[in-house]
Amino acid sequence: MDHVLIDNDVMLDFLLNRQPFSDDAAKIYELCKTGVIKGYTSPVILSNAHYVLRKIHSHENIVKSFLKLLEVIDLVEINKITVIDALNSSFKDFEDALQNFAAAANKDISIVITRNFKDYKSSRLSIQTPLTYLKQRP
Fold first, then answer.
1. Are 92 and 36 in contact (CB under 8 A)?
2. How far apart are the C-alpha atoms of 2 and 35, rounded to whole Å?
3. Is 128 helix (H, G, I), strand (E, B) or coil?
4. Distance between CA atoms of 24 and 22, rounded to whole angstroms?
5. Which DSSP state fits 92?
6. I need a surface site. Which of 90, 97, 100, 133 has the fewest CB within 10 A?
7. Which residues partner with 4 through β-bridges?
8. CATH assignment, 3-136
9. How many CB atoms lie within 10 A of CB 22?
């Protein structure tokens, strides 16, 4: 079973039904929901998603969506070591560095699913778009 970190852009594609990307994001969610893959996200991703979603949805609706989402996916831990690793990395984007090192610290996660491929150039994890990931699945 693959263990994957679902990055911010894919999470927002799913939560906001952003076409044409939401179909692939929904397929990733469904794979998590059915137990075919194990999905993770981070508190930072949820915080960022909340910031975007609050402009169009009530806090109560966002909370309901997040609680439903957290029934299906787990959170990676971001701690002092994660932050130090991110700060000392060659990543240009601090947020992506946090996601990367939080995922890498979870020894089960081997894949980051993102459409933001360019910011993960220095990652040691496999970086895949939702479409690429779905195409390579049996």
1. no
2. 10
3. strand
4. 6
5. S
6. 90
7. 39, 111
8. 3.40.50.1010
9. 18
Size (the chain), residues = 138
Question: Does the predicted TM-score (pTM) go above 0.90?
Answer: yes
Integer-rounded Cα radius of gyration of the chain: 14
Kindly state the tokens that stand for 28: 């990733």
**How many other CB atoms are there within 10 angstroms of residue 105's CB atom?**
15
Pull the structure tokens for residue 86. Answer: 């991110």
pLDDT tens-place string over residues 79-129:
999 999 999 999 999 999 999 999 999 999 999 999 998 999 999 999 999
Compute how many other C-beta atoms are within 10 angstroms of the C-beta atom of residue 83: 15
Integer Cα distance of 85 and 21 in angstroms: 31
